[in-house]
Amino acid sequence: xxxxxxxxxxxxxxxxxxxxxxxxxxxxxxxxxxxxxxxxxxxxxxxxxxxxxxxxxxxxxxxxxxxxxxxxxxxxxxxxxxxxxxxxxxxxxxxxxxxxxxxxxxxxxxxxxxxxxxxxxxxxxxxxxxxxxxxxxxxxxxxxxxxxxxxxxxxxxxxxxxxxxxxxxxxxxxxxxxxxxxxxxxxxxxxxxxxxxxxxxxxxxxxxxxxxxxxxxxxxxxxxxxxxxxxxxxxxxxxxxxxxxxxxxxxxxxxxxxxxxxxxxxxxxxxxx
Length: 273
Prior knowledge:
There is one protein chain. By secondary structure, the protein is of the alpha+beta class. The protein folds into two domains: 10-71, Orthogonal Bundle (Arc Repressor Mutant, subunit A); 81-268, no CATH class. The chain is 40% helix and 18% strand. The strands form four sheets. The chain has a four-stranded mixed sheet with strand order 4-5-7-6. A three-stranded antiparallel sheet has the order 1-3-2. A three-stranded mixed sheet has the order 10-12-11, covered by helices on one side. It is elongated.
């Protein structure tokens, strides 16, 4: 039978007080064991008790969200999904379509939060939101910084790294049309030189091939800049949209198999009148 009375007790009060002093809304089992200095079995019993009494919500194994008094007897309380995301894996940063949406570069609303990390981790579902963890090699894990969300520092990829990541994994951006829209929308905020430098650092030339193709298609940069990008592309062909059909015309300039509707890509960007 589920307990509905939100009694706390001395030990539970000590735990939650110290968690609050440390400025944590989400904490791990290891944090509780460190604070209480008790046997693991006793810590597990206490945490289970606090979950039943609606002082905590278990997010996944070993991760707990502190519920404030405002949550009431039913424990109804939510925090920003980005805050939850960065507590589910370390190191990690919010990226891909989630970062596109954060910066206003896409209108797509997704029930998935994408988190880049150097660890392999299976997706987690919490309150109808799927947290998907994208494994990156250490060489690609850069280009992020902490931003305050609900007074909690959350690592989010910067604008240039967000675009480069989406060109790297088009499927995590919602398709090549969404990447094209994001490039166009961000044109006043992202320096193309910075974007190219970021792509070069990621050491995947398919990023530069897709980038050059789209920049030329959308007429966003002068020819001399396109030539600069061409000096860094691969001799091998890359597919423009991994989510697209198997066919597609081969573009020898960018070594791209253009398996997307080119006219639709041009029309997808909202050009000023």
